């Protein structure tokens, strides 16, 4: 093998990436000031990870922690913060950028929600006048029922109104506990006859909008974490 070929092979190996799924079931040491505990990394979703451990009561919300993950792709060390605690586990922020080799294009986590929004649809109507046909343009406000959302887009239901077209861009305001004005591009359409379901991607969110959306999704993930733990505890009591 030539020197250039060997160098190329070594460079390719150095650039190999991995999915965050390979970290699941890894032994994880969690350390806060004056205390160390070991658990198992059991769940990763978006910017949150769950670590199952028997000493979960020793950690409090907001605790800064240092973690060492003994994974199949090597030892990963990172700093984080406790954002959730329930029976048998803690939840911490998943600082994605701190992990070397992690795939850059990770799928944006999609969370199920039940929120509202409005969208402006431009309607062009042609009317016959005495002087001939003339186009009239007006704006129709459409009510949205948002069913899921991610950093890249959302899925929503429209009960009534004009059909939206694929690749159409529309102005919207999402009510997520705060108002998020944005532009959406329609990428998918489905209908059951009574209502229309659409998938749309966000267009050109600025830094402030992205941070607000990321914080909202993280809060929803933490809420889902608590719901999972409550359902698991309920199932354990009934069996």
Descriptive overview:
- This protein has 239 residues and is of the alpha+beta class.
- It folds into 2 domains: 3-98, predicted glycosyltransferase like domains (Thrombin, subunit H), CATH 2.40.10.220; 111-213, Thrombin, subunit H (Beta Barrel), CATH 2.40.10.220.
- The chain is built from 2 helices and 12 strands, in the order αββββββββββββα.
- The chain has helices spanning 3-14, 207-238, and strands at 27-32, 35-45, 48-52, 64-71, 74-86, 89-93, 111-129, 132-149, 153-158, 169-175, 179-191, 196-203.
- The protein has a 6-stranded antiparallel barrel. It has a 6-stranded antiparallel beta barrel with strand order 7-8-9-12-11-10.
- A hairpin with a 2-residue loop joins β2 (35-45) and β3 (48-52).
- It is elongated, with a radius of gyration of 24 Å.
- The N and C termini lie far apart (62 Å).
